[in-house]
Design goal:
The chain is an alpha/beta fold. The protein is 41% helix and 17% strand. The chain binds uridine-diphosphate-N-acetylglucosamine.
């Protein structure tokens, strides 16, 4: 029988790509989402691509009663991948309580019900934001964590601690935290992708929306950093590569191949790319000259960070496959697809 995986936030950007990879690997996918930041039509996209429609229950995970109801009806869950969270850094600064409540109460509820319903395996969406500005690059998992620069970032750091302490107290629970670097791009079919509500905060959706003509110009946040070209450096990885890592992590837990109850992996390419290099990549694959202007630094921005993914390469047998250009091309295809679709409506 197929193993059932619960994907919270499964209609979101990374969750929807992961649902497809899980279905491709013969898992049954059950999605819980409150559709706060996503559309239920994403399920149609997942079905079109994978040939299988995951179930969707519209539940807010902070609602313990409804969540308990879900688990009492679905007893055979082999693992949970927990994506559902708020993720806008600047919004988290103005609404810290909403961020702490949403991101941490949901996690606490899930862990409590894992204990109650004896669900052993959890994969958690964490972020490289927990490293702050690392002293040594590329950054490894054992680098010291630094105080978060935003409530959003702090929910990831505290979330990791909550999971670690829970696993430590209860040997029947196993967990893997995945520290993502910068996910970009979309499924090659262009049927699903990132759908930011309102003005995007992240670089790549801002680039594609500007190129499409929805935004006047990209503001590049500073070119006076201590980097080779002066622009900030990040590690941009294709979202489909990232999604595949979740399947590997789930299998590792289900097959009990994990080396300790709580493991942490960096998920990145290992390549640092500057904002200018990212823009050039976009221009190369799209053939569009991007309008952009260098402005002041964005408060809280990290100067440079990229992953040492060798632990994930070695232990998970996972590595990124797509190049930056390939990822940018899929981001551009997706932008064109959703804009043409919204004009048809
Ligand atoms: C941020 C968060 C990270 C979070 C991620 C996803 C920090 C330090 N990091 O990553 O925790 O997981 O968002 O939401 O807060 N840029 C521009 N112009 C723009 C947008 C971005 O120049 O309009 C630049 C930024 O200065 C940065 C790079 O592009 O150098 C990437 O920015 P972004 O996509 O927002 O991701 P991070 O800041 O790396």
């Amino acid at each position: 029988m197929k193993k059932k995986i619960l994907v919270t936030g499964g209609t979101g950007y990374i969750g929807s790509h992961t649902a497809i990879e899980l279905i491709n690997e013969e898992f049954d996918v059950a999605i819980i989402d409150n559709l706060y930041n996503s559309e239920k039509e994403v399920i149609d996209g997942i079905e079109k691509i994978s040939g299988k429609r995951p179930s969707l229950e519209i539940i807010d995970i902070c609602d313990m009663e409804k969540l308990d109801g879900f688990f009492s009806r679905n007893k055979e869950i082999a693992a949970i991948i927990h994506f559902a969270a708020y993720k806008a850094v600047s919004e988290s600064v103005s609404k810290p309580l909403e961020y702490y409540r949403n991101n941490l109460v949901s996690l606490i509820n899930l862990l409590g019900l894992m204990k109650k319903y004896r669900i052993a395996n959890l994969v958690f969406s964490s972020s490289c934001t927990v490293y702050g500005q690392p002293e040594n690059l590329p950054v490894t998992e054992d680098a010291p964590l630094q105080p978060a620069t935003s409530p959003y970032g702090n929910t990831k750091a505290v979330g990791e601690e909550i999971i670690r302490d829970t696993v430590f107290s209860d040997s029947s629970i196993r967990a893997i935290a995945l520290r993502y670097f910068n996910p970009i791009g979309a499924h090659a079919s262009a049927l699903i992708g990132e759908l930011p509500r309102g003005v995007p905060e992240n670089l790549v959706p801002y680039i594609t929306q500007t190129a499409y003509g929805l935004r006047d110009e990209l503001k590049v946040f500073g070119n006076d950093y201590d980097t080779p070209d002066g622009y900030c450096i990040r590690d941009y990885l294709h979202v489909v590569d990232l999604a595949k890592a979740h399947v590997v992590a789930v299998k590792r837990l289900i097959e009990e191949k994990n080396k300790s109850g709580y493991e942490v992996f960096n998920l990145g390419t290992g390549n640092g790319v500057s904002v200018l290099e990212a823009i050039k990549s976009f221009e190369r694959v799209s053939g569009v000259k991007l309008k952009y202007k260098v402005t002041g630094r964005r408060p809280g921005d990290i100067e440079k960070i990229w992953a040492d993914p060798s632990f994930a390469n070695r232990e998970l047998g996972w590595k990124t496959i797509s190049t930056l250009d390939e990822a940018m091309k899929t981001a551009w295809d997706w932008e064109n697809y959703i804009r043409s679709k919204s004009q048809i409506k």
